[in-house]
């Protein structure tokens, strides 16, 4: 009799576990290339949401070509949510170049952290200013990525375009490999600090961190208000003794508008209520805060996220 009761109890527990698993919402988070910040930070976010949502949500992080591709994936419903640059999100949502149509199925969950434009050249290239890239091989990032969008935005102010430089369309890891092999003269990365690919480069050879400052930067910010005057702190990379003036954008988290409100609410709440755990898993998590959750956001928030932020006393619409 006891054996029968034990079997019945075990069967009941298995059934309960099965039903609990059936209720778990399984989501895919689009991140970026494996050599950037998006992929490892996205993995940390996925792990925290999965572990801290009480079985409500299970998240899988997916490597992608980053912001441009991620907006298209979310728009089409091929992924549930994604990490993107705020400027790319705005251009995509409003159907501005390089996007051919409005990607307006996208809604914001919240801002994550700032990303800096790193303009880097080899020491022997002779490049000291952005204008010096004329006639050089320059990696501008994966085609259609937020990184490439930023290159298109700023190059024109310095008399550069894809006709007077040789653009190379590569993700961060491949760019680092070609840079070390002297196959490219320089690159532009829009990325959080410190970037592992750049750290790898600076341990292997001397580089020049090209500053972005002065009147031209003022003109850029006036035309593209999503770009902010900023600086890469001194000592971020080996051999970088001084702060480097540059521009920054914001990494934000977006979801498809058809994500159920309760799912978006739970996702947002679980993330922002457990930021210390994200910070333990990845150093960029320390730069995510509830206080700055709306910084740089110019497209609509998801109603589920709005509900959570209002509970926290934030006036987000």
TrEMBL record:
Pfam family, one: NMT1_3
InterPro entries found in the cross-reference section: TRAP_TAXI (IPR011852)
Record's keyword terms, sorted: Receptor, Signal
CDD domains xref list: PBP2_TtGluBP
Transmembrane segment boundaries: none
Signal sequence interval, chain numbering: 1-22
Coiled coil: none
Protein name (record): TRAP transporter solute receptor, TAXI family
Species assigned in the record: Desulfovibrio piger ATCC 29098
